[in-house]
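wait is this the right file?? whatever heres the structure
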């Protein structure tokens, strides 16, 4: 049962990675600091990945789910 849950989770993450191929986050950087006067600039940082990574995760999740359970 645990193996099936892990496989399903990997598949769900793969589907999300195929739908959303990245995200952006913004940081504030100080440009000028002249005593009481400060000028700040927002800098955008994109994080992108290929949809192929999501496809690989989907296939990996299916492989985890269909492999037979090993009894020790």
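ok assuming it is, sequence goes like this
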């Amino acid at each position: 049962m645990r193996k099936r849950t892990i496989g399903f989770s990997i598949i769900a993450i793969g589907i999300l990675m195929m739908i959303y191929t990245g995200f952006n986050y913004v940081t504030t950087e100080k440009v000028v600091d002249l005593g009481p006067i400060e000028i700040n600039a927002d800098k955008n940082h994109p994080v992108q990945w290929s949809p192929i990574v999501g496809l690989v995760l989907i296939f990996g999740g299916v492989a985890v789910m269909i492999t037979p359970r090993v009894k020790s």
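The first helix runs from residue 2 to 19. so i think its the right one actually
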